[in-house]
Write a structure and sequence with these properties.
This protein is α/β, with parallel strands linked by helices and about 350 residues long. About 35% of the residues lie in helices and about 15% in strands. It is built from 10 helices and 10 strands. The protein has an 8-stranded parallel sheet, sandwiched between helices. Helix 5 packs parallel to helix 6 and helix 8 runs parallel beside helix 9. The termini are close together. The chain binds N-[3-({4-[(3-aminopropyl)amino]butyl}amino)propyl]acetamide and zinc ion (ZN).
Length: about 350
């Protein structure tokens, strides 16, 4: 299996985040996450680890607003140059003021724009955020391109984009939840120009950025299975009655599940999602693969076992679609390499 990885992610290492409730903690989305998965892949005989190609900005601009990408590109340098009289080191840009829904003024000032584009306190912008986010998106795009051109064989083809930072909370014009550019959405949009595409999100957290991006589109079916957002991040979308809008009505589905969800309930829910995927008759499948569904994840509330992760992989792989697996969350670093290998082995 081809694996796309760029060491540029190491430049993105935000020092902290702030939890709901106000606790300031070391950022959970650390370089070690990708390094653990890379190390596990290097132990295998089947993973072919490759550098991504540079696809430029065009495929990103099909998914994200140009002004948002400009903000990501320039924000940290502006922060360093700003005359804000800070008596602390400007290691990370993070606003503390956000517009209520419907207030759409976009201030010219840096901190005004920061609150406009940054949705929560877990996605600070540091010196290396923009290059790392670009490299991450290029891993997803190169992975998507590796599913083409059609090989003579009819066997399914799968590849893995070892993306870091992750992407599924990034919307058309906002970062959030450790995510800056929505890697899976960029790849799914690119593939959708070449064939019917489904995006299935199994990260513990609702894929709210992906929902935002594709909500009015019928050409990409998006499905997310996740912890009930009424009690879990990202709180404000991911509910079962959100099924798309306008021409996209019926082409987004959410499957919220309760705290403590075990393998059996998860797999029964996955079966419903897979039925929807089969009736969509897709050619390409993008999987937002977050391993924070694993029992005991510090940011998740499910109780899935490793056997459960294998069963999820086997069921999805049995669709026999050309599949791009895109790394999202997963914060039990000691288990992350093995968990991801277990999932990927179902697709090789
Ligand atoms: C990509 C991804 O998985 N992003 C997840 C972002 C979640 N951020 C908020 C998590 C808050 C969890 N509350 C933790 C309580 C720890 N004791
Ligand atoms: Zn997550």
């Amino acid at each position: 299996m081809k694996v796309f990885y760029s060491p540029t992610h190491l430049q993105h290492n935000p020092p902290f985040e702030i939890f709901d409730g106000g606790e300031k903690v070391p950022n959970f989305e650390v370089p070690e996450r990708a390094l653990r998965i890379l190390a596990a892949l290097r132990q295998t005989t089947w993973a072919e680890i490759l550098a991504p190609q540079d696809f430029g900005l065009k495929p990103l601009l099909s998914v994200h607003a140009a002004d948002y990408l400009d903000f990501l590109r320039t924000a940290y340098d502006e922060w360093l140059l700003s005359d804000l009289d800070a008596d602390y080191e400007k290691t990370a840009l993070l606003p503390a003021t956000f517009p209520p829904a419907g207030w759409r003024r976009k201030p010219k000032s840096l901190l005004g724009r920061a609150g406009y584009y940054m949705t929560d306190l877990s996605a600070p912008i540091v010196a290396g955020t923009y290059p790392a986010a670009l490299a991450s998106a290029n891993c997803a795009l190169t992975g998507a391109a590796s599913l083409l051109p059609e090989p003579a064989s009819t066997l399914p083809v799968s590849s893995f984009a070892l993306c870091r930072p992750p992407g599924h909370h990034a919307g058309r014009a906002n970062c959030a939840g450790y995510c800056y550019i929505n890697n899976a959405a960029v790849a799914a949009n690119w593939l959708a120009e070449r064939g019917r595409t489904v995006l299935l999100d199994i990260d513990f957290h609702a894929g709210n950025g992906t929902q935002d991006i594709f909500y009015r589109r019928a050409d990409v079916l998006t499905i997310s299975i996740h912890g009930d957002p009424d009690g879990q991040y990202p709180y404000y979308s991911g509910y079962a009655d959100e099924t798309g809008a306008g021409p996209g009505l019926g082409f987004h589905r959410n499957f919220p599940l309760p705290d403590g969800t075990v393998d059996a309930l998860y797999l029964a829910t996955l079966d419903k999602a897979l039925e929807l995927i089969e009736s969509f008759s897709a050619r390409y499948l993008v999987i937002s693969a977050g391993m924070d569904l694993f029992g005991g994840d510090p940011l998740g509330k499910f109780k899935l076992t490793r056997a459960g992760i294998r069963a999820i992989g086997q069921k999805i792989a049995a669709l026999n679609l050309r599949a791009l697996i895109v790394m999202e969350g997963g914060y039990n670093n000691a288990a992350l390499g093995e968990n991801m290998l277990t999932f990927l082995e179902c697709f090789k």
